[in-house]
Amino acid sequence: MNLFEFEPQPEVVDEGRPLAERMRPHSLEEYIGQEHILGPNKPLRLQIEKDQLGSMILWGPPGVGKTSLASLIARVTRCDFVPFSAVTSGIKEVKAVLTDAERNRKLGRRTVLFVDEIHRFNKSQQDAFLPYVEKGDVILIGATTENPSFEVNSALLSRSKVYTLRALPPERIVMLLRRALESERGLARTGTEMTDEQLHQLAVYSNGDARAAYTVLELISAAVGRAAVPQDVLEDVLQRKMLLYDKSGEEHFNLISALQKSVRSSDVDAALYWLARMLEAGEDRLYIARRLVRMAVEDVGLADPRAVEQAVAVQQATHFLGVPEGDQALAQLTIYLAIAPKSDAAYRALAAAREAAQKGLAEPVPPQLRNAPTRLMKEQGYGQGYEHAHQNPGGITAMECLPDSLAGTRFYTPTQRGLEAKIHDRLEEIRKWKEKQREG
To answer: Is domain 250-339 classified as CATH 1.20.272.10?
Structure first.
């Protein structure tokens, strides 16, 4: 027999380990969820079954089975499995394992190096993996809750396949919980009983996180023992929903994006929902206020100039009142912005003017717009041809204020929404008068 031949050992149930750890799947058939990559004839499933593994990044929210999947891949393909957490391990320890893996490969053994929260290693530290991945000394499986495009070294990313894992739907969580109650390596010995409705409540509470669901189930089982779980006990445990949120991570930006796009779409109910999600997750209230001020400028604009006044007032009220009283001010502003007429005409006008400034020549200011505080400047023609608007009937002039190469360019085109409709009419009146005067 080969000294290094993989021989699975019978598992001894250690009830001292957390339930989530004891319930890790032992086969692909036991693995629940992620059918989009593990279903029949799906890419990762075929890779595993054909034992044609390459390095990969598993990207998904907490508790969706990233660690379990990595361990299962090593088990099915008979590889040594070496788990690391980037939170508790340094690059020095990783390099030691990589050196061992290089030696073991020469002896015919393969190593799956699993790096949990790989984004915690900075990009220069991630460089340590590259030569070992390229030579095939290790099959690197990195797990991350953050977008790999931003958090994983591009060289490492180009040598790895990214698989996106999704939050588990409630029905999948219920299956996992039911299995845990009935399994010998789970809670079968405790005799705890829960109805399907109670399991569904717990599944919804866990918000797609199987580990969180297991943790609460184990807590409930310890509390009630060999009995049916009373509804009041379940409700006491489920006092507050766990919301997936990381103030510096992608979900933070996903939620504020959802809020702004709901406001922009004038969907007041959706806007309030996304605002509530951020409030419940503990988001910095002044950050929300700052983003709402931006929406007032960027999405409402001159269709309702009072939106900016309201937004700045709410920012001050939020700062003054604090939590929770200031939350109502944020809700009030969200409603106001959602139902206000929308215009991004001013936003687009500035973008167009900036593009012209960046791409065109930096032309000199026309002489008529220059001040002439000295005699030399007057002799050079500074200020000649200047028309003072307040001295003209109607308070406007036909004087051209753009450089010759841009004369007649229109950057701002108002919409016909809200107050901007009146601005549109007034601007057309001014522009037509100027054209008529210049033609005359």
So the answer is: yes
